[in-house]
Backbone:
């Protein structure tokens, strides 16, 4: 039995654990002082926050150090490169002042590719010559919006590619209160059909604050806006948000207003392990969302030490379908943060996906992957093939900065160690992949367009 007590439907109120109080967690008594120090060292560089639901209901109390959810939420020494760990550890051992620790932490962070996939350079949209730094518009039909009050989470994932949102470096953080500018941007971009509220976690906001973002979108009555998406891990890390929080019903009423307005509401739910789907309250929360007309799509990266096992994925997809969710994406761990700890080679990722896919019925096969969310777009690994006398890796774009790239197969030279597209080389002795020169042209066109707007 994983946990000794039955999972409660209405537990105590939310309580967060961070570097300031993690030693108060009863399970910490089983760690050595060196292991606790490791948490402090890594937690001074990468964000760390857990909560009472994660600790009490999701982590195996009897084997928590080897538990996947513990690895998902608690820092470990290996999550920093050795030189980075030693630098921070030496400062903490010397009781260096906070300013020196912060400077060292920021220097390390800047070496961890804090904003991958062109989030700063390529994705920022412009409106009347003004850059909208707190929005992203990468794909034609979808714009991302970062509500300022939703730029934290109920708990932080150790792999999170948006870790810069949580470490106090304001120049690395997306956030926006400018809902009016979002509405104006949608008016002049009729090709946009989807708005994705993201963060952080927008559903950490109160229903009242979230309404300040949702209601203006609905009142604008934009004919091109068909779908509102909300990226969240609340169903896993704090399902009480939809069941027993003080404003749980107000939140459901607000979300129900979206569906009643005729627009589709898609909850982009993050589940990284089937363990997160076991608590009774998770099913209750999912049911509550489905009753107000929300569609729940599930996604997760493939993570070494957490879910790099076909049986884990097939179990997770099956359970999600049983609960009425739609498996959506298996991603690759992005090239940022603790990538060295979590990443899986693209060939191995395809093998895991393929083996898991073989074990599930057609209702689970809505899932797509393994997919790299790269600067170029979402690149799916389709597997191995023999062509032109070579063993090659076959890939295609599921999304691309240029829509013409989508669904066009291309080939990389065989490499069973590469973990990202920039580590792969074109097959057949080609000097470039077909999209590389085109990407340079697209970037230049974007720069020219934004410069032209500045002079209007």
Residues:
């Amino acid at each position: 039995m994983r946990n000794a007590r039955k999972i409660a439907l209405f537990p105590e109120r939310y309580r967060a654990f961070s570097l300031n109080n993690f030693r108060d967690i009863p399970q910490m008594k089983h760690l050595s002082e060196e292991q606790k120090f490791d948490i402090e060292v890594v937690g001074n560089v990468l964000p760390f926050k857990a909560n009472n639901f994660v600790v009490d209901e999701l982590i195996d109390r009897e084997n928590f150090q080897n538990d996947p959810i513990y690895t998902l939420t608690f820092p470990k020494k290996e999550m920093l490169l050795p030189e980075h760990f030693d630098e921070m550890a030496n400062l903490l051992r010397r009781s260096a002042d906070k300013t020196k620790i912060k400077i060292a932490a920021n220097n390390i962070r800047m070496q961890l590719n804090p904003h991958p996939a062109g989030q700063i350079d390529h994705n920022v949209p412009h409106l009347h010559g003004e850059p909208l730094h707190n929005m992203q518009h990468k794909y034609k039909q979808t714009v991302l919006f970062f509500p300022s009050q939703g730029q934290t989470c109920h708990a932080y994932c150790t792999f999170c590619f948006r870790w810069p949102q949580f470490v106090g470096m304001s120049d690395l953080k997306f956030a926006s209160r400018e809902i009016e500018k979002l509405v104006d941007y949608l008016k002049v971009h009729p090709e946009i059909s989807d708005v994705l509220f993201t963060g952080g976690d927008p559903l950490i906001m109160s229903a009242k604050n979230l309404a300040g973002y949702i209601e203006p979108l609905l009142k604008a009555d934009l004919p091109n806006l068909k779908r509102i998406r909300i990226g969240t891990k609340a169903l896993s890390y704090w399902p009480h948000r939809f069941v027993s929080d003080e404003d749980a019903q107000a939140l459901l009423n607000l979300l129900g207003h979206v569906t009643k307005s005729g627009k589709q509401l898609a909850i982009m739910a993050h589940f990284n392990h089937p363990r997160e789907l076991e608590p009774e309250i998770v099913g209750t929360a999912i049911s509550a969302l489905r009753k107000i007309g929300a569609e729940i799509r599930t996604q997760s990266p493939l993570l070494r030490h957490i879910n790099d096992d076909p049986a884990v994925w097939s179990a997770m997809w099956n359970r999600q379908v049983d609960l009425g969710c739609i498996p959506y994406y298996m991603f690759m761990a992005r090239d940022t943060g603790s990538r060295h700890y979590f990443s899986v080679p693209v060939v191995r990722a395809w093998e895991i996906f393929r083996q898991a896919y073989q074990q599930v019925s057609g209702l689970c096969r809505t899932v797509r992957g393994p997919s790299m969310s790269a600067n170029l777009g979402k690149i799916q690994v389709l597997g191995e093939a023999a062509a032109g006398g070579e063993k090659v890796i076959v890939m295609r774009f599921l999304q691309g900065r240029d829509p013409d790239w989508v669904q066009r197969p291309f080939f990389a030279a065989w490499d069973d160690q590469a973990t990202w597209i920039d580590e792969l080389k074109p097959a057949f002795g080609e000097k470039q992949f077909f999209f590389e020169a085109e990407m340079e042209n697209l970037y230049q066109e974007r720069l020219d367009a934004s410069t032209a707007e500045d002079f209007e």
Remarks:
- Residues 16-109 form one domain.
- Residues 3-9, 451-456 have pLDDT under 50 and may be disordered.
- The first helix runs from residue 33 to 43.
- The chain has 14 helices and 15 strands.
